[in-house]
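Morning!

This is the sequence you dropped in the shared folder:
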Amino acid sequence: MSLSESEFYEAGMSLPPDVRKHVALRLLESVDPQEAFDLASDSWLHSEAAAAYDALKVDPSTAIPAENIRAGLEAKWAARP
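The structure's back. C-alpha cells below.
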C-alpha cells in the first residue's frame, strides 16, 4: 500500500505530538542529518535542559557534583562491551 503525500501527512498528524516529533526528526535525518541534529539539540536545550536549570535554581541542594557525574560516566564507559 502506498500513501499519497497528503494521506501520509494526515496519518502523521493523527499521532501524539511526541511521536510526531520523533518521526519528523527521523525523516529529516534521512534527508539532512546535520539539520536533524541541530533541531534535536535545540529542542533538548529549550525543554529538558532549561527545565533542569530552572529546577536547580529553585533548589540548589539537588545539584550533583561534577566529580560524581564524571565518575559515573567513566564507570559506564569502562563497562561497555
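Headline: The chain is about 80% helix and 0% strand.

More detail when I'm at my desk.
O.
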